[in-house]
User: Which sequence fits this backbone?
């Protein structure tokens, strides 16, 4: 790299910059600037468009739970609650699976089986959201309604989490669908993190007589801890903003319910469902404010995640989101 | 613990990890099986050549949605790729101080932004001023989603081009711009094409940002400034409708869509297989 870095200086001494160089430089810089301006425009346009709602409700927007388009009363609590709960549920399922799969792929699996499984995991991430939703409506929800929810109600029904009539669609279905969708991201990034752990770590543990699993636990997982947290956060970022599949299975009712069987609503799905039908300016502004909120939260979560993953071993390369 | 117990734990954990990997992949297989089972019967020639029929009439197809999706993808590529590839080239080559860092950071930020939010953005900058839903707005939203993926893969691939190649060209007295465009870019081409196809596969199935930009259309589109049908939108609309025949069509649409996505993904792999650029 050092040699390349020196090139422009040498050239500047040898000959005056030629026109082509200057033009190309300008074009390239313009391309990068376009990207920067796009993100700026995004923030500005959303703040401006949600301004009426911010002025009308202020912080109350985040602290009330009435969502009544007719009376023009808007509070975001049911959606924030739904987004957080469904994402949390998704992580509860996806984190052990994702990290387990990553450990398998990076440490324990026989070498010949790794590429095909890694490829299949990539395909899980490639399935469009709307297809997960379709499957959720016609396969997962009936499955939950007929088998899983009655069984849960019978055995764990004393918990408020598992009470109420089994609809199939609802928070539980949303959490499961989200888990399926974010698990490939967690697996892929965790695997990258584990692979970035220096081999000397493993060799040291093995030399002390540790088994493969003990090596993984003592030398690899501990070393890559912060990177794994980063991987989980990246999964969380995905889960928070995931829209279509959730919209199709969560039931879309703006209520705060404790039971996982009850229908709920998320920030992304209320925007998806009501945006095109928003009749008044204030209604639209409220929806855009929810979008803005989602934007801010996902940016923070993603920025944190990247810092953590970078801390283990270089930038995440293989995350093709 | 006795050595025996430790070996036992080792075996147990290996199996648990394998089980986790299996569970991660299982839904894919289930979904695929269901798509084939439910969708294959409804995929026929009519599906590709006919417009949707009104409610109650059996048959019809999604020809308009298939064409719509292809048009949206083409338009998004036209809008997003030049900026993306040139931006990536800039990130890899520039020795400016602040802009590359900022652009790289914002590309990563943009990559994590939910696609529905990008839909809102496209709505407020294109749909609102034009006062109608349009193919253009949908394509713009898709282009914005593609942009960070293309930028980052192009950057990565351009960086992989050996410095010796550049130096050799420069030593021959070729101006830098020519070196970049005629030596560096062509060398990285296969990899960049892969990145482009990965980006296209990613946005092909996007639904959320199209809901209130492209909007959907039950007929052939009437121009780029008019609403246009798209396969994912049509699947969504049919899936949540209460008609059995529409559900069948939704499965068929899903099968076609996933076929499209997987074909592009596989093609992306083929484009680089066996080249020296081999993406990792």
Assistant:
């Amino acid at each position: 790299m050092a040699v390349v870095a020196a090139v422009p200086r040498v050239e500047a001494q040898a000959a005056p910059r030629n026109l082509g160089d200057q033009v190309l430089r300008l074009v390239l810089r313009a391309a990068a600037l376009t990207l920067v301006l796009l993100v700026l425009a995004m923030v500005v346009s959303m703040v401006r468009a949600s301004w009426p709602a911010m002025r009308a409700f202020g912080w109350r927007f985040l602290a009330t739970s009435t969502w009544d388009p007719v009376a023009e009363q808007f509070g975001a609590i049911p959606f924030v609650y739904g987004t957080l709960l469904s994402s949390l549920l998704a992580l509860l399922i996806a984190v052990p699976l994702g990290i387990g799969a990553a450990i398998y792929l990076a440490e324990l699996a026989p070498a010949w089986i790794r590429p095909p499984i890694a490829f299949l995991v990539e395909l899980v991430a490639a399935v469009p959201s709307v297809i997960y939703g379709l499957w959720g409506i016609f396969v997962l929800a009936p499955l939950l309604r007929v088998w899983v929810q009655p069984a849960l109600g019978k055995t764990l029904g004393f918990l408020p989490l598992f009470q109420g009539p089994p609809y199939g669609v609802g928070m539980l279905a949303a959490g499961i669908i989200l888990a399926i969708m974010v698990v490939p991201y967690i697996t892929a990034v965790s695997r990258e993190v584990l692979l970035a752990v220096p081999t000397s770590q493993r060799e040291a543990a093995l030399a002390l007589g540790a088994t493969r699993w003990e090596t993984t636990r003592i030398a690899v997982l501990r070393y890559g801890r912060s990177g794994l947290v980063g991987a989980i956060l990246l999964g969380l970022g995905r889960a928070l903003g995931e829209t279509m599949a959730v919209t199709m299975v969560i039931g879309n009712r703006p209520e705060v319910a404790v039971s996982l069987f009850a229908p709920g609503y998320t920030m992304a799905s209320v925007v998806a469902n009501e945006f095109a039908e928003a009749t008044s300016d204030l209604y639209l502004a409220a929806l855009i404010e929810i979008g803005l909120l989602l934007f801010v939260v996902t940016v923070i979560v993603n920025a944190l995640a990247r810092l953590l993953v970078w801390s283990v071993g270089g930038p995440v390369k293989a995350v093709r989101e | 613990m006795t050595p025996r117990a430790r070996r036992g734990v080792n075996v147990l954990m290996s199996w648990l990890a394998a089980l986790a990997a299996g569970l991660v992949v299982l839904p894919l297989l289930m979904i695929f099986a269901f798509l084939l089972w439910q969708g294959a019967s409804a995929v026929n020639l009519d599906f590709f050549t006919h417009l949707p029929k009104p409610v109650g009439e059996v048959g019809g197809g999604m020809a308009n949605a298939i064409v719509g999706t292809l048009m949206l993808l083409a338009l998004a590529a036209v809008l997003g790729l030049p900026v993306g590839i040139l931006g990536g080239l800039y990130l890899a080559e520039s020795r400016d101080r602040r802009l590359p860092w900022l652009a790289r950071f914002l590309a990563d930020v943009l990559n994590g932004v939910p696609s529905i939010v990008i839909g809102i953005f496209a709505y407020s900058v294109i749909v609102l001023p034009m006062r109608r839903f349009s193919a253009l707005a949908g394509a713009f939203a898709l282009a914005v989603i593609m942009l960070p993926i293309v930028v980052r893969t192009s950057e990565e691939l351009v960086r992989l081009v050996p410095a010796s190649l550049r130096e050799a060209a420069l030593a021959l007295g070729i101006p830098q711009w020519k070196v970049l465009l005629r030596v560096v870019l062509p060398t990285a081409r296969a990899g960049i094409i892969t990145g482009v196809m990965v980006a296209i596969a990613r946005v092909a199935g996007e639904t959320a940002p199209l809901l209130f930009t492209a909007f959907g259309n039950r007929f052939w589109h009437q121009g780029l400034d008019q609403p246009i049908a798209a396969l994912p939108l049509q699947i969504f609309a049919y899936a949540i409708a209460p008609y059995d025949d529409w559900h069948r069509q939704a499965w068929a649409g899903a099968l076609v869509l996933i076929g499209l996505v997987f074909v592009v993904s596989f093609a992306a792999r083929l484009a680089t297989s066996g080249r020296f650029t081999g993406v990792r």
User: Anything to note?
Assistant: Residues 59-313 of chain A form a domain with the MetI-like fold fold (CATH 1.10.3720.10).
